Amino acid sequence: MAAGMVVAVGGLGVASAYGVNPFQGSRDDQSQPALLTSVKDISEYHAVEGTFQQVLQIEDDVPWVPEILAGRQTTFVAVGTVGAYVDLAGLAEDDLVLSPDGKSVKVRLPEPQLDKPNLDQELTYVLDEDRGALDRISDAVELPEQSQYYRDAEAKIAAAAEESGLIDRATENTEAMLTGMFGSLRIAVTFLD
Predict the structure, then answer these.
(1) How confident is the model at residue 35 (pLDDT cuts 50, 70, 90)?
(2) Closest by CA position to 85, among listed 119, 60, 48, 118
(3) Which residue of 16, 113, 120, 174 is surrounded by the most CB atoms within 10 Å?
(4) 134 has a pLDDT exceeding 70
(5) How far is C-alpha 159 from the chain's CA centre?
(6) Beta bridge partner(s), residue 44
(7) CA within 13 Å, CB half, 27
(8) Can you tell me the distance from the alpha carbon of 67 to that of 61, in angstroms, rounded to the nearest whole number?
C-alpha cells in the first residue's frame, strides 16, 4: 500500500515536472453561434467622448446595532465613457439651405445629445469594504448585491458629463466636420443658432 502511494506521488511529481497536471479539468464550449436579432440604421455623428472616474463611498448602517456586528462601508471605483453626438436625422428642410448659386450653405444643427455612460468592466471594482460580523457571515452564504453601486456611479458620471463641456465640444467638432466636407466641394458654410 505504502509502495503504491510512493509510486503515485512520484508519478504526479514527474507529470508536474513535464507540465502535465492530471487534475486539471477541461472545458467544452457548446454555445450556439451569436444570433443577429436586429439592424438599425443610425444618422448620428459621434463627435466626442469623455472618460470619467467616479469613486463612491457608501456607508450602510443598521440603527441601534454596533458597527462591529452589522453595517458596511464600501469604496467603489467606476471608470466609464460618455459620448456626445449630433443626430443629423433631426435636420428639417429649412435647417439646410443651399444658396441659388450652390456656393454657400446655411446649416442649423440639432442640439447635441449625450450617450448613456458606458462603464469599463475591467476598471470598475470594489476597492475596499469594511463589514460587520453578521454581514461577513451573510456574504459567505450569498454574494452581496453590487448593481446599486453601478447605477449610482452611472448617474454621477452622467451628471458630470452634463457639466463637462462635452456638448459644446460636440457642436464644435460637428461644425468642423461639416465645414471640411462642404469645403472639399468648395461650398462655404454658415452655421445658424
Answers:
(1) confident
(2) 48
(3) 174
(4) no
(5) 15
(6) 87
(7) 2
(8) 7
